[in-house]
Design brief:
Mean pLDDT: 82
Radius of gyration: 27 Å
Number of helices: 14
Number of strands: 8
Order of helices and strands: HHHHHHHHEEEHEEHHEHEHEH
Structural class: alpha/beta
Strand order of the largest sheet: 5-4-3-6-7-8
Length: 383
């Protein structure tokens, strides 16, 4: 590296450290000006309150002023990329208690929409004035449309393939033969002298049909910690409901159970039909889902919950065992989000695993593969 290159790299490191440290006397000996000073002010408004004793305050903070917060939201969108903006917005809501400001339409118009913001808006749903509700719906719809664009096509393609494979026929036409499964089914008929397998039994893919082949029940815990999972599950529920071969039911619960199946054509309506927060009664929710199952051998139940049971745990386990004994494929997801497993009831998770229903966190990108495996009754692809 040339001397000038080294100097440039060193200057950039000092600049970055100066932005990280903030304040006036940070030890770098570097002053900030122009855009860097504005970035430092935006960072300090959010993160400047926790400086060590003796260090200069980074800024006056955001306080509770809606105009100041609105300006700050505009600033961070100017100075930082979208993923960073979303993190800073989330931190502002959590650290500075700005949730109530989101009830003002002008504030909602200034934010960068993402899954976590949707979760916050849903938690404020009942307190939201009519003047804000339409703006909030527009924000939620923007996020939902982004998620559908990202996930819908792959989900439909993956599950269509799984449905076709699960509807195999024993006397297929030549172009419908599943050669991989046919060979495996006839390995006992291998003739060493001819180095070939005699296919006494053919296994084929089922032909396309408009009839319902499988039923899927999404049972979603709507406690506050499950906000992102509720958002993703609502989007996937709408995608599944759009497939003729799958009859989809979507149920949300806390201590009460709400069936939102009739709203699945619009995931925004589904989301505004939820009420994040409250207690958790998994047993009651599964009792309702169990009562709606008419074709257990062709049904997949997906429970999305952190498993902190406020109901009767032994009855919950009994219902899962009964559904599995009847032929239901039962999937337990601790979360359906990009952020890994949340805090969850490990004892309850272990008890479900002992019943053959292991609990694990699932990313939205993995969910189509999980559902495909469940529809085909093969081992689930653990992350």
């Amino acid at each position: 590296m040339t001397e000038s290159g080294t100097g440039t790299a060193g200057d950039e490191r000092l600049r970055r450290w100066r932005l990280v440290l903030g304040g006036e006397e940070d030890g770098t000996g570097r002053a900030l000006g122009g855009r860097d000073a504005a970035m430092d002010g935006a960072l300090g408004a959010l993160y400047g309150g926790g400086r060590a004793q003796g260090q200069a305050e980074r800024s006056a903070g955001l306080g509770g002023s809606a105009p100041r917060v609105a300006r700050w939201l505009g600033d961070i969108r100017t100075y930082f990329p979208s993923p960073v903006v979303q993190v800073m917005q989330r931190d502002a809501i959590e650290r500075l208690g700005l949730s109530t400001l989101l009830l003002e339409p002008e504030m909602l118009e200034a934010v960068e929409p993402d899954v976590h913001l949707v979760g916050t808006l849903l938690s404020l749903n009942k307190a939201m004035p009519d003047t804000t509700r339409e703006t909030a719906r527009a924000v939620v719809r923007k996020v939902v449309e982004q998620l559908e664009k990202r996930l819908a096509a792959r989900t439909r393609a993956t599950l269509t393939g799984a449905l076709d494979r699960s509807a195999r026929v024993s006397r297929p036409r030549h172009h419908d033969i599943d050669w991989d499964r046919t060979i495996r089914a006839n390995l006992k008929n291998y003739l060493p002298e001819h180095r070939t397998v005699v296919p006494e039994r053919l296994v084929g893919y089922g032909r396309a049909s408009r009839a319902v082949k499988k039923e899927v029940v999404l049972c979603i815990d709507q406690s506050g910690s499950m906000a992102a999972s509720v958002v993703y599950a609502s989007v996937f529920g709408a995608v599944l409901a759009s497939m003729r071969s799958i009859a989809t039911r979507l149920v949300v619960f806390d201590t009460a159970v709400v069936d939102l199946t009739d709203q699945l054509d619009d995931p925004v309506d589904v989301l505004f039909g939820t009420q994040l927060g409250g207690g958790t009664d998994i047993n009651r929710a599964l009792a309702y889902c169990q009562s709606k199952i008419t074709r257990p051998a062709d049904t997949v139940v997906v429970l999305i919950s952190d498993l902190y049971e406020g109901g009767i745990r032994d009855e919950t386990l009994g219902r899962v065992a009964a559904m599995k004994a009847a032929g239901v494929e039962f999937v337990t997801l601790l979360a359906l989000s990009d952020e890994g497993a949340p805090a969850y009831d490990r004892e309850h998770a272990a008890a479900l695993a002992a019943l053959g229903a292991p609990a694990f966190a699932c990313t939205p990108d993995l969910f189509p593969e999980v559902m495909a495996a469940a529809l085909e009754k093969r081992p689930l692809p653990f992350p």
